[in-house]
Amino acid sequence: MSERTSIVAAHQFLRKMPAAHAERMAALATHVTFPARQMIFEEGTPARKFWLIDAGQAELEARVPGNGRVIIEELGRGDLLGLSWLQPPYQWQYGAIATQPVQAFEFEAAAVREAMAADPEFGFELMTRLMAVAAHRLNATRARLLQARVGVS
């Protein structure tokens, strides 16, 4: 396993992934940074990438009629940022902003979808991990929207 693969594979989201799959993910990864207060993506815009956060913090936010901006979840080291790239129409369902400088591994969604289709074992492995994040995100969204509805912060 190369040093680059070891670094990417050490991310919480990819831990214990089979070596060949981790190598594939590492080959698709680019390391990027976002300064604090930079919008990473906006709700309703095309979802073409996703990120595995290596350092820093970002907030997922939703626009809720009558309540304005609601913070859905704070994400940091070890978290995956972005799920809307998985299903058409590939548009962000939330917005995300860096609240601290963020370092992350960035992935081009189309390339990852192609890799998943080309290798069903890899696709299943990755989809299983993504669905765990999606289930957690749905629960976090529900909790935050219920809080916003009753005015609890």
Characterize the structure shown:
It is a single chain. The protein has 153 residues and is α+β, with helices and mostly antiparallel strands. It has one domain (3-150): Jelly Rolls (Sandwich), CATH 2.60.120. It is built from 4 helices and 8 strands. It has helices at 3-9, 19-28, 109-118, 120-150; strands at 29-34, 39-41, 49-55, 57-64, 68-76, 80-81, 95-98, 102-108. The strands form 2 sheets. The protein has a 4-stranded antiparallel β-sheet. A hairpin with a 3-residue loop joins strand 4 and strand 5. Helix 1 crosses helix 2 and helix 3 (109-118) packs across helix 4. The radius of gyration is 16 Å and the shape is globular. The termini are far apart. The model has no long low-confidence stretch (mean pLDDT 92).
Give a quick summary of the entry.
The protein is α+β, with helices and mostly antiparallel strands.
Characterize the overall form.
globular
| Gap from first CA to last CA | 46 Å
Helix content: 25-40%
Overall tally of domains:
1
Write the element-wise H/E pattern from the N-terminal end onward.
HHEEEEEEEEHH
Placed side by side, the strands forming the largest sheet appear as 1-8-3-6
